[in-house]
Design a protein that fits this description.
This protein is an alpha/beta fold. The protein folds into three domains: 33 residues, no CATH class; 346 residues, Rossmann fold; 97 residues, Immunoglobulin-like (Sandwich). Helices cover 20% and strands 27% of the residues. The strands form eight sheets. Strands 5-6-4-7-9-10-11 form a seven-stranded parallel beta sheet, with helices on both faces. Strands 22-21-24-25 form a four-stranded antiparallel beta sheet, with no helix packed on it. A three-stranded antiparallel beta sheet has the order 14-18-17. Strand 9, helix 7 and strand 10 form a beta-alpha-beta unit. Helix 5 packs parallel to helix 6 and helix 9 packs parallel to helix 11. The longest helix is centred in the C-terminal third of the chain and has 18 residues. The N and C termini lie far apart (62 Å).
Length: 504
Amino acid sequence: MAVAAGARLAGPQVPQLRLVTVRPVAGASQRALARRLRRDPRVARVEVEHRAVPRALPDDPALSEPTQLGGLPPGTPEEWWASAAGLTAAWDQVAGTGVLVAVIDGGVEATHPDLAGRIAGSVSEDAGGGPALQDDVGHGTHVASLACATSGNGLGIAGAGDGCRLLVARTDFSDASVAASIVWAADHGARAIVMSFGTDDPGPAPQPLVDALRYAVRRGAVPVAAAADTPVEDQGYPANVLQPADSGADPKSGLGLSVTASTFAGSRATFAGRGSEISLAAPGTTVEDGHQAGLLGAFPEGVSGLETGVFDGGSGRPCGCRATFDGDQRWAYLQGTSMAVPLVAGAAALMRAANPDLPVADVVALLKQTAARPAGTGWTPELGWGVLDAGAAVRAARGLDRTPPFSHLTVTPPGLAGRSRLLRWTGADTAPAGLTASGVASWEIWRAVAGGPARRIARLPAATHTLRVRLARGARYRYFSIAVDRAGNREASPPRGDASVRAR
């Protein structure tokens, strides 16, 4: 089809989304190719591809000594953001050991001592062929460390997810590459996805990217994206897909989370996005004598694109961001909404560790509802629902029962003559360690006759465990029970029922 239209394959192909990336053959125009493809009835949609850029601003020169940032109270720890975002309180409740957090970025230097052993899987969706576990820019390594740097190893920083492991997807930030990376992360078990990038395109997001984000949510991943690194109200995609315009004030709205950057003082960073597409904020910078200064995170060993000011095909001011920390130069101070995103994703990972059955929608709503904000205020265009409070979010997650109860039914006596039978069932409502089950509220008894559809024949209180039924001579019956708990969770219907009986 593509060849007949005068196209050649270019970039990722994502069969789960029915996405094919093509470009015109040499000498042909893109517009003409698009017209031909749109006329083909086998083509559902044709969209021009765009390319995002990482969400990070070059920092002011990094400080040479840790915990010595000017303008902060004496004794302020280097990793001040851990307590400011409630992460230390969350770590007291749960560890994110083994929870998978995907980082979609320009690669991650896996040999960094604070990331060694943290990589659970990797893929490169970079059309340029760059390896996933190599970082030429520095952005991806820094972001990954803020999310899942090894904690308790006596060096470096502790990642927000406290024991989480990384799925690294290297992208070239094109639409198809990002969509392919999201699908790969979801298929490989990501419970949160870090997207510290975005576009400045005011138009709607391409449908394949929207489809990919919805696909990830269906598979249980919490997508978290960076708001703009300028104080605008249109955050660009993917942020404005996760929190669409005019939806921020509803804590239950949105597909995921759009995150802006806050300062040490808890105010919105002057460079950060604001407005109705903001879900919440998290630390993304400090303030040093009136100037912005970043968060300390891991950095590649070699000279990076951020340091030279040339990366991703563009040119900017060298960041001057590399820092020596504990005698090691593989660190840097970077600032931006990019730095806020992995903190929120790490908090989401902790919530999933505390309550594995928590749906994505609950994680999103709880992170908003528990965010720190002045008493008596709700959502604001400056910080969304407030600054991340991971400790409060984990506590709230532990208080929700989202685990369905279970039951099993038997028929007594199953094979004797007569048309009366006694149904008996047992069951319980359990919860993961550290959570409290709400308890069984009721039982539903279902029956199918002669292979027909099952119909509920009784709803009984939790204290009841038997029901006598009468059968029609010669008829075949299938029975099963469904337990319902006090939180409203329902046991799934068994595919073949619990017991079958035929009256003689």
